[in-house]
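In the previous chapter we treated chains in isolation. Here, by contrast, the input contains three separate entities that must be folded as one system, with a combined length of 138 residues.
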Amino acid sequence: MAYWLIKSEPSTWSWDQQVSAGEEGTFWDGVRNHLAKRHLAAMRLKDRAFFYHSNEGKAIIGVVEVIREAFLDPTAEPGSLWLCVQVKALSPLRRPVTLATVKAEPRLATMALLKYSRLSVQSVTQDEWQIIEELGGS
DNA sequence: GCCAACGTTGGC
DNA sequence: GCCAACGTTGGC
């Protein structure tokens, strides 16, 4: 199983909204960056992703599961090849892991979140995943 | 093919 | 509100 991190501004799409979407989940659409697209394409059913609130919140707040692998993003211009996946909320972290906490943890110094702060779909290593789950209280 | 201008993202 | 990082656009 692979691990990811997806970002959303809570004013656009929040963790609470993701939870409200329930088992059906939602299309994770609107990604318009080629590296992010490659990550979407590499996602497999049952992969997990951290849900990160950017701008307001600045914290990893929950975990989602990939419930449909990459398909053409219906919100993209006709003819373009942007992709999206479908995800559903799995569980919140008991304690959100803030950006400050990630920065303060030496073992997370190489995380994409710090290095490529503007990338909206990032991959997460298994080590990073476990450390963040620990920090999040699970 | 280079690079300046500009728009967007996202942290502070 | 500012600004750094980065992607895109368009003139040359």
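The two ends of chain A are 19 Å apart (CA to CA). Residues 7, 9, 54-55, 58, 99, 117-118, 120 of chain A lie near DNA strand B (CB under 10 Å from a C1'). Compare these points with the single-chain example from earlier in the chapter.
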